[in-house]
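User: Can you help me understand a structure? I only have the sequence.
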Amino acid sequence: SSYIEVTLRQFRLACWAFVTPMTPVTRCLLAKVMTPLNDYFLNSSDSCKQFAFCPGGTELNYAAVAAHLELNPGDVCISTDMKAAFNMFDRKCMFEQLKRVPGLDGMIPYVALVYGQAATVHVDRGAEFGPLLIASEVGGKQGCGLAMALFCLAHFPSMLASTSRHPGTACYGFADDAKNLGKIDSALAATVT
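Assistant: Let's start by predicting it. Here is the structure, written out as tokens:
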């Protein structure tokens, strides 16, 4: 029994070495899923796009906004940038998306290794109170090379739902920076719901 525990502990420590920021394993995994990610983010809807994973994504996002406003001169653009976005996404939604979006289920074993259990967050409360340990089941892990992809994957359904609930609006994003476009009332409603 103790031999197995030591072996499992060593295995977990060895595995952790592969899931730190942008290791070759992370890069290979992202390269493998880039096409399915972009297919999902760019082809799910004409009025909702996530440009974070295409070459020149920031420029494409800007061009999409500019083209929309040129074609719809009465529309406005409401820009949002989420604070601490990568720290707050729902991991349950993330795993559901990995199962649902074609081509991404191969990521599940690797992502489960990193995000399958609650992370321990250490809060320094000084010598008088000692450290506070909090189990966190939301967000990306600090420095994880997959955090932006997992955030976008977890957040994209809400972008799609918002544009669906508010006809005539569009939402173009680059990671956590989103642009909601439409008539003022609709664009505002799409931004806050």
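Now, to help you interpret it: The two ends are 53 Å apart (CA to CA). The helical segments are 2-17, 24-43, 57-71, 91-100, 108-115, 126-129, 147-165, 184-192. Let me know which part you'd like to focus on.
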